[in-house]
Known about the structure:
Blueprint: H1 15-47, H2 50-88, H3 94-100, H4 102-130, H5 136-158, H6 166-199, H7 209-248, E1 251-255, E2 258-261
Antiparallel strand pairs: 1-2
Amino acid sequence: QELRPKSLDIKQEELGDMVEKEMASTSEAIEDAVRRIEEMMSQARNESSGVKLEVNERILNSCTDLMKAIRLLVMTSTNLQKEIVESGRGAATTQEFYAKNSRWTEGLISASKAVGWGATQLVESADRVVLHTGKYEELIVCSHEIAASTAQLVAASKVKAEKSSRNLGRLQECSRNVNEMAANVVASTKSGQEQIEEKDTMDFSGMSLIKLKKEEMETQVKVLELEKRLEGERVRLGELRKQHYALAGAYDAVEDGEVKPAPAPRRGILKKPPLAQKP
C-alpha cells in the first residue's frame, strides 16, 4: 500500500464519479476546440489572402479532421468503459467496481485528461500560428502528444476489455484514425511552413563583396551559437524525460495483475547528429 504512487488525492468511492466527470470534461474540451477552429477559419479568410490564406486553411482543416477523430475516439472509449464495468462488476455497484479496480481507474482518468489537454493545446498553437505569433513546430509537437495520449487511452481501456469486444475493435480503429489525422496535421504544417519560407526568399544580389563577407561571418557565429544551444537543449530533454519516467512510474504492460515497468529511454535518441563540414 505504501509503495503505490500517490497520484491522485481522491477517495476510492469518488473514483467512479471522477471517471465520468473527466470523460465529460474531455468531450466538452473537444467540442470547444472544434468551435474555436471554425472561428479561426472565418477570421483567417477575413484577414489573410494568397499563400498565407491557403496555408492557414490547409492547417485548420487538418486540425478540424483531427478533432473529429478524437471526438469519435472519446465516444467509443466511453462505450467500451461502460461495457467493461457492466461485465466485470457482478453484484457490485459501479462505484464499488471502480474502487476495487482503483489503479486501472486512475490510469483511465489520467489518459482522458491527457487527451483533453492535448486537444486544447493544439487549438491554442493553431491560433498562434494563424495570427503569426506562434511557431509551426508547436503544432507538430502537439500532434505527437495527441497520438501518444491516444495510445495511453487505448492501453488503459484494453487492460480490462474482452479481446472479442466489438467496442475494443472500434476503439483501436479510432486510434489508428487519430494517428493518421495527427500525421496529416504534421504534413500540412511542414508543407505550409515551406511555402511561407519560400515566399520570403533571400536576395543578396545588391550586396558588395565586403558586405557579403561580413554577413557570412555573422551567420557562421549564429550557426555555432545555435549548435551549442541545440546540444544543451538535447541534454535538458533527456533529463526531463528521466524525471517524467520517475514521477509517472511509466508502465508498458499489465498482465495478470502484474505491472511491468517500461524500459528507460535510450540515450541514443538524444545523441547529437553529426555537424556539417564548415569552410
